[in-house]
Write a structure and sequence with these properties.
Blueprint: E1 5-9, H1 13-20, E2 27-29, H2 43-56, E3 66-78, E4 84-87, H3 93-103, E5 107-118, E6 122-134, H4 139-147, E7 168-172, H5 175-179, H6 183-192, H7 201-209, H8 216-221
Parallel strand pairs: 1-2, 1-3
Antiparallel strand pairs: 3-4, 3-5, 5-6, 6-7
Helix pairs in contact: 3-4
C-alpha cells in the first residue's frame, strides 16, 4: 500500500527543516487559524486545540489520501500562585524585552502539540511538555537579541537554538519540541497512521541539534 500524501500545515521554516529529518517527502501548506487563547484555557489545552485546528483547516481532496500534520507551541510561565501565564509571539520590541526579562533566571514549561488528520480516520494528537530554566542573561544581551529581530516569530520571544543568545541554561525534555516540532512524538504519531519515518529519527535529531538526547527512549516507548 502506498504511503499517504504528507502535508505540513505550517509556515514555520524551523518546522519544515525539522520535518525533513524524518526522510519523508512532504508538502508545506499554510493554515489560517487564529492563535488567540480562549478564556480560562490552559497552555496544554491551547496548543492541543490549535494543532487540531491547523490539521483540519486545509481544503484538500480526500481522494489524494492526505495526512495533514498540524503543530502549535507556547511558552508558559508560572505566576507564583500555581497558574501559568501563556507567552505567545511578541507583538513588538517592548513586549519581546518584557518576556525575556520575565523569563530570565526562571524555570518555565514549553508545550508543543502535534496532530495528524486523515480522511476517515479522525484526529490523533501528541502533547509534549518540556521544562527549562533560563540563564541569567544581561540587559545588554536582551537588547542585542531583540535588535536582531529574531524573537518576533517565536513563542516566549526566544529560540533555544540561537547561537548568539543561547538563552537556556537547563532543559528536561524534548529539545526539538522547544523549537516547535517534537520529533519523537511525531514519529509515534506517524507510525499509527501508516507513515513511518524513513530515517533513524533520534540519531538524525541528535546530529542536527548537536546535542545528546536523554529522553528519546522514554518518549518512543510511549
Amino acid at each position: 500500500m502506498n504511503s499517504p500524501r504528507l502535508v505540513l500545515a505550517s509556515q514555520s521554516p524551523r518546522r519544515r527543516e525539522l520535518l525533513k529529518l524524518l526522510g519523508l517527502p512532504f508538502e508545506p501548506a499554510v493554515a489560517d487559524v487564529s492563535e488567540t487563547a480562549r478564556a480560562q484555557e490552559t497552555p496544554a489545552q491551547l496548543v492541543t486545540r490549535l494543532s487540531r485546528a491547523k490539521a483540519t483547516d486545509l481544503d484538500l481532496d480526500p481522494a489524494d489520501r492526505p495526512l495533514v500534520i498540524g503543530c502549535d507551541t507556547v511558552v508558559a510561565l508560572e505566576n507564583g500562585r500555581g497558574a501559568e501565564r501563556i507567552l505567545g509571539k511578541p507583538a513588538d520590541a517592548e513586549e519581546a524585552t518584557a518576556m525575556l526579562q520575565a523569563l530570565r533566571g526562571r524555570a518555565h514549561t514549553v508545550y508543543s502539540a502535534v496532530t495528524a488528520a486523515a480522511p476517515g480516520r479522525g484526529l490523533k494528537t501528541e502533547l509534549a511538555a518540556t521544562r527549562l530554566r533560563m540563564r541569567s542573561y544581561t540587559e545588554a544581551e536582551i537588547a542585542a537579541y531583540v535588535a536582531s529581530g529574531d524573537p518576533f516569530d517565536k513563542a516566549g520571544a526566544y529560540a533555544i537554538q540561537h547561537a548568539g543568545f543561547h538563552p537556556v541554561g537547563e532543559i528536561d525534555g524534548c529539545y526539538t519540541s522547544v523549537m516547535g516540532l517534537p520529533l519523537c512524538h511525531l514519529t509515534r504519531l506517524l507510525h499509527t497512521r501508516g507513515c513511518p519515518p524513513a530515517a533513524d529519527v533520534p540519531a538524525a535529531c541528535q546530529a542536527f541539534t548537536s546535542r545528546r538526547c536523554d529522553v528519546y527512549k522514554r518518549i518512543m516507548s510511549g
